Amino acid sequence: MLIGIKDMAKLFAISIVTCCAVFVCTLFLNYNIDIVGIKDEITTPQGMIMYDAQVATGKVVVGVSGGCLAATTVVLLIFYVKNYIDSHGKELGILKALGYSDINVAKHFWVFGISVFIGTAIGYAAAVIYMPTFYDVQNDMELFPQMQPEFHFFLAFSLIAFPTVFFMLLSVLYAFFKIKSPVLGLLKEAQNIKIKAGKDDEKDLPFLTDLKNNTLKSRKILVFFVGFSAFCFSAMTQMSMSMDDLASENFSFMIISIGLILAFMTLLMSLTSVVKSNTKTIAMMKVFGYSRKECSSSILGGYRPVSYVGFAIGTVYQYLLLKITVDVFFADFENMPEFSFNFKALAVSVVTFIAAYEIIIYFYSRKINGQSVKSIMLE
């Protein structure tokens, strides 16, 4: 067994993301399937308008949220597989030196898919428990006949078994191509980091500035996660506060809960990886007398603009999504309030985000200060 329980525990983030994705998709897909079954029983024009609006909204929510979270899971899985191979190159190289083929080594990476199974199973179970309440909320205006949630085997299979098998195969295939390296390269844990020459490389930049730039360039996937965490925080918090007249309190609470979980989970994972991958650099900077502030600015400071860009994109995204939903899918519904940009929600979200982000950055700067030079030198 190449991959142990300790390594599997690091895949907690994947379980969280897949849990959120399946939770949302199960609620809306199951509801859409059931409401289609009672379409002929809806007799009022107002009921048919609401029917069309809710079916369309369900498709949009599943397509946007499910698609975004599925793409995030792919990136997370590739990140963890790559990180495992990079940090266990010697062990993998020894196995290949002993005669194990690439596929024989790569096939053990199927266990990474277990994290997907755990997340999807928990997400589906949570959705089933919450589903009766969700159905009542969706029909709070009593425009449809009362209906009870039905179990749909194909939906359960599609949301649990299919993603699990898909991500197991993805883990094996990515690992197979990743370890197709010379044995000596794996034994030396060689990492080929290609940085394109640009204008900055032609200038004699100060050391701290150059270090900040190279930290971002060498870990582009972490740049994505930091930006994504800010995107989730911005989009979900503003969306939940802007939906007071458009949806129930339960729905708004569900949106903001998922957004905060994804935001903080991805941000903490990203910054932990940044600090861990730069321990030797931090130790040597401390040896040469650089302060904690200088170390933190060089290692973590470059991610601050990335987070603000992610926040801005999330702001635009949530506005466009709600605007399209109201103007297109609920255009024919009477008494539907006109949707406009919620500046109050933006202000609250900005202040909260900056405070939370800076507190987390401060925590990790303290963690950087706690790096022991002696422990690094003994490695």
Descriptive account of the structure:
- The chain contains 17 helices and no strands.
- It has helices spanning 5-9, 12-37, 45-87, 89-97, 102-106, 113-138, 153-178, 183-187, 199-202, 207-218, 220-242, 249-277, 279-287, 292-299, 303-329, 343-369, 373-377.
- It has 379 residues and is mainly alpha-helical.
Short description:
This protein is an all-alpha fold and 379 residues long.
SSE diagram, text form:
Elements: H1 5-9, H2 12-37, H3 45-87, H4 89-97, H5 102-106, H6 113-138, H7 153-178, H8 183-187, H9 199-202, H10 207-218, H11 220-242, H12 249-277, H13 279-287, H14 292-299, H15 303-329, H16 343-369, H17 373-377
Helix pairs in contact: 2-3, 2-6, 2-7, 2-12, 3-7, 6-7, 10-14, 11-12, 11-15, 11-16, 12-16, 14-16
Helix content: over 70%
Shape: flat
Major beta sheet summary = none
Number of helices: 17
Low-confidence parts: 190-198
> In oligomeric terms, what are we looking at?
single chain
Number of strand elements: 0
- What is the mean pLDDT? 79
In what range is the share of β-strand residues?
A: under 5%
Distance between the termini: 25 Å
N to C succession of SSEs: HHHHHHHHHHHHHHHHH
**Rg for CA atoms:** 24 Å
Q: Name the structural class.
A: mainly alpha
